[in-house]
Amino acid sequence: MTDPAAPQATNRVLAARIWREYLRPRRNRLVLAMLSAAIIAGLSAALVEVLKPAVDQLITHPQPGALVRIPLLIAAIAIARGLFQVLQTTSINRIGNGVVGDMQVRLFGKLVRSDLARLRGAHSGSYVSSMLYDATLIREAATSGLVNYTREFLTVIGALVVMFRLDWMLAAGVLVIAPVASLFIRRFSKKTTKAAKGAMGETSNLSTAIMESLDGVKIVKMENREAYEEGRVAEVIDRRQRHLIKGSNAKAMAAPATETFGALVTACVFAYAGWRAGTGGMTAGAFTAFLGALAMALQSLRQVANLQTVFSEGFTAARRLFQQLDVEPAIVDPADAKVLPPGEATIVFDNVSFAYGDNAPALHEVSLQARRGETVALVGPSGGGKSSLLNLIPRFYDVTAGAVTIDGHDVRGVTLASLRDRIALVTQEPFLFDDTIRANIAYARPGAAEDEIEAAARQAAAHDFISDLPLGYDTLVGEAGARLSGGQRQRIAIARAFLKDAPILLLDEATSALDTESEAQVQAALERLMAGRTTIVIAHRLSTVKDADRIYVIDRGRVVETGTHAALVRHKGLYARLAKAQDLDHLPATSPEVGA
Ligand SMILES: Nc1ncnc2c1ncn2[C@@H]1O[C@H](COP(=O)(O)OP(=O)(O)OP(=O)(O)O)[C@@H](O)[C@H]1O
């Protein structure tokens, strides 16, 4: 069997998976929808068959009683068909929305658990398009497509049965030309499939382009590039529309073809019927009913043809969505993972090398150590590898060689949950969710009590400004915290770390975004946060560097110097040059040796 996630997975494999995972749990309702579809097809056939007695008994040879009986019969069939149509539609709606919901939840669950490397590797727009667009296309194919197909198919069969009952010879003649109709259907379904695939690819590009422009809206405005962005999006829209137009044209061109074909068949039926009527073999009623059945069969065949597009879109979407769904993260708990036991929280990098995928290594044989109560600073030129190093501790990425250990336990040997429980991370641009300040502080500990949240905010020097807000802790912070200042966002992130109270603190310090007063508050809060923890900080603020127990100077992926600020200044190496550039090389030197 083909792997359902593989790009070449056959439609049969995809259909089996959709059935197994999404439809089987809803099979009762699906059976109801299918039964309704079958009954609708039967009633439609009955409706055309009634035309025979209707014409014969009401018009050609009027019969007493028929005037009431036949209209009542038609009304009863029509009402029953209407009721089953409602039943079919409501069942499909329930199944369809359930299927989409399931797919979206599963896909999001998968994405949010996937490796950082994978998430960084594709634009989030493509995930959004898959979640919203692909899932809907699969729903269309798997629910209304499937049920309508069944209904229309059975309607064709029903119409054929009626035709055979009315005049088997004529029906057999019509049946002989059926393969021609199927040739039509196949021909244009190929074209629409190709167009559908193209349109789907462009839908993904479109969401990417829109999200990117809006994410970078400040720079777009600053550089007066609105018109350029508009043009860029317009180009993608144009490409997408070209595919959509091609698809619609293929459909539209098929309509005159099938209609002409239908008219030709009808003409033949007329000729035959005329001949048969002349010889007394076919009544006017039978003839009318036959034409009605033929028209119904042709109409249903057209629907069947249209549904081919729905199926091909659905399968293409399923192939894409399952591919996304089936990528297993590489960074997971090992089979024999143990919980990281509480301890001193000593972090050791033992000859660590690391590369992003197949790129050149970002870190070469790095060794470093940070103990409880210590502040270890990472400094060095941009692109040197400081962030990469920090990312290895909570296993956002895994080392390529060597090991990162905490209290002697390799981080790859313990559960991710217990590892990350022990670490608080405060980044340069702290991320806040569009929720209340309270929820943002309590993000790591959703069950935290009100006074714990407030205590954390006080320690982070955030309580006063929060209390000054009209809604206090209930204030909604806006998208990514947009309604707060940079310093306020940072203090909320620090409060979050205080509340988490993890023994390890990873800090990517803010650079120059803050004014002096705000910076002093943030700095004081950070110092309180660092006390008594194992802190590794990417240092930009020189006061942190000065007070650090140890500084590791990282350049081009290697630790090139180690020591205290004073010792490193005396050493007159890279650090001394960086410090000089920042006018910080005149501090009294009091301290120990420099290493490398
Ligand atoms: N996701 C990624 N994929 C591929 N390469 C990356 C990725 N992130 C960083 N790099 C590369 O790894 C190297 C180290 O980057 P890193 O971000 O760790 O440096 P840094 O010292 O933190 O820089 P800065 O001070 O500018 O933030 C750089 O050459 C960078 O181009």
From TrEMBL:
It is found in: Cell membrane. Its EC number is 3.6.3.-. The keyword Transmembrane helix applies. The keyword Membrane applies. Keywords: ATP-binding, Hydrolase, Membrane, Nucleotide-binding, Transmembrane, Transmembrane helix. Its main location: membrane. Residues 31-313 form the ABC transmembrane type-1 domain. It comes from the Bacteria. GO terms for molecular function: ATP binding; hydrolase activity. SMART domains: AAA. It holds the Pfam family ABC_membrane. It is an enzyme of class 3 (hydrolase). CDD domains: ABC_6TM_MsbA_like. Residues 347-581 form the ABC transporter domain. The chain crosses the membrane at residues 30-51, 66-84, 141-162, 168-185, 252-275, 281-298. It is a multi-pass membrane protein. This is Subfamily B ATP-binding cassette protein MsbA. It comes from Caulobacter rhizosphaerae.
